[in-house]
Amino acid sequence: MGVKLVLLPPQRDLTREWAAGLARGVTGLQVVAPETAAEAAREVVDADAAFGTIPPDLLRRAGKLRWLQAPAAAPPAGYYYPELVAHPVVVTNFREIYNDHIGAHILAFVLAFARGLHHYVPLQLRREWRPLPLDEGVVHLPEATALILGVGGIGSEAARLCAACGMRVIGVDARRAEAPPGVAELHRPEELDRLLPLADFVIMTIPHTPATEGLLNRARLRLMKKTAFLINIGRGMTVRLADLVDALATGVIAGAGLDVFEVEPLPPDHPLWTLPGVLLTPHTAGYGPYLDARRFEILLDNCRRFVAGQPLRNVVDKRNWF
Fold first, then answer.
1. How confident is the model over 42-94, as pLDDT tens digits?
2. Residue 140 annotated as catalytic
């Protein structure tokens, strides 16, 4: 008997294409793509695997479910609800598909701050020719330190790029045992408070988990250098925005490059829009080509592995959401 995979609704043209591609590409796999919640409730009863978001009522009906492919690298809060965490189903995600795109975005923030663009872009909009004094507004990267919080695929790529610019890179990671190329030192999260005062750039690539929510708060911002810059492209809930606004407004830190926020979209009246030293992008750090092809490649590979009884890629620690 074959293995049954249910692509959970809502269906897009893309997932319908995936269904056909998986059926062609994996011998012994039956692929079903129900269009409605009622159809999904019937199909999930004898499903071995599923793709997408499975609500508690469907999970209770899924008596054979052994594998769930999450539809994102880091699904939103609530995806890993208590019943799913307690269930024996193995969950995998789409991590690693954004490494090159987000690594480039991080480097863009670093170079912008290092060359004073956070100062000059507002002047350009006001048509003001006002150069800073010689040697001010420049960070000499061969003498700078980057502290990267989260040295997974994205953090490792950011480390490689920062090191290529001559920076000393320090990493903090809860899982990684060995430093990847470009990382001079690797530390556990318990060392964060000691490391923050050393950094010229604090780069956050960590996911939103119970342990990381509000990780960078008023107290930790005050541990940073007054000349340091914060860059967050991970998840908005890891930084307390009210504390960050206060730190920027009072000169506790020099600036911030943000792609993610506690509240998205960022309200138009939020002070971050107009604070000096702030560069904002609207959750676009991961934008770039080939993402859907990369998602399908992981799904296809995991389907082949699942049918063959082999270990799956990108297995998630459900209790910690990543």
1. 999 999 999 999 999 999 999 999 999 999 999 988 999 999 999 999 999 99
2. no
pLDDT tens digit sequence for 99-137: 999 999 999 999 999 999 999 999 999 999 999 998 888
The one catalytic residue among 168, 220, 235, 295: 235
Specify which residues 84 forms β-bridges with.
Answer: none
Give the position of tokens 């930790």.
220
In the set 283, 294, 305, 313, the catalytic residue is 283
Going from the N-terminus, what domains does the chain have, and what CATH number goes with each? Answer: 3-96+289-320 (3.40.50.720), 99-280 (3.40.50.720)
Question: Rounded to an integer, what distance in angstroms lies between the CA atom of residue 171 and that of residue 147?
Answer: 6
Active site residue 235: yes
Annotated active-site residue 283? The verdict is: yes
Q: What predicted TM-score, i.e. pTM, was given to this entire model?
A: 0.95
* 155/115 Cα distance (integer angstroms): 22
Catalytic member of 17, 42, 264, 319: 264
| Phi-psi map region of 225: left, alpha, beta (phi>0 left; psi -120 to 50 alpha) | beta
Query: The dihedral of CA 173, 174, 180, 185: what is its sign?
Result: positive
